[in-house]
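Troubleshooting log. The previous structure file for this entry was overwritten by mistake, so regenerating from the original sequence record. Sequence copied from the archived sheet and checked twice against the printout by T.R.
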Amino acid sequence: MGKKTRILAFANNKGGSGKTTTCANVGYSLSLLGKKVLLIDGDMQMNLSLSFFSEEEVLKLASGEKNLYYGVKKQEDLSDYRITTPYENLDLIPSSTLMSGIEYELFTKWQREMILKNCLAGIRESCEYDYILIDAPPTLGGWVINILCASDGVILPVEASPWGLFGVANMFEFLEDVKKIAPGLALLGVVITKLDARKNYGRQTLEALKAFEEVSVFSTVIRVDSEIEWAQDNSRPVYAYKKSARSALEYMELAKEVDNYARRIRQH
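Regenerated output below.
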């Protein structure tokens, strides 16, 4: 059987969930596991791009036309919008601050929910990548619907804090609505992030998530670790910055779990 490309979205309508950090570090860990990975920065804040390139480089990419905004606006095959990262097996389609206007660009388009899916069709059919990981912005609009319709599965990072679960019920409802358009979309699971072992929030978050039926939680939990911020300051994934860091090892374990789950879901 040949290689299949799995497309996974990292989404949460609440900011500060660790969504982008999880996407970047799971992507890098998968590349270390021998998987070919394409990361797509779908957020106007460009933090996924900043995880691998300096601010100067990211702003240069954002101000040019080789970024996601122009590819989607022109409804072109995104193959030509890829750039290589400094790491083997890991490519990126960078974002742009202009992504703030993408909803407006899509609004009048025919079959607007499927535009990103169509733009990715050529890359997917080439089977060049094992995984395409998309970082979605923290909203519940038409652009996030586009991202989810292009994806086989969605991963939902949730912060272990009193506010971490705020709005998560809305997110689950939103996913159910999107499934009416994209019935093949699977919720791969919830990742608990920013866990502080000294506080009870982790247990409380887990208990609260159990109230939602058919929602699985990844067994790997990402704990609070200052090395994450140091790595981000250096525009590097944690494992590349300091592979002995606790969070680096946790992201590696999470990547193995993601790979295990993702191989079971069917493409659509």
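The two ends are 17 Å apart (CA to CA). Archived copy saved in two places this time.
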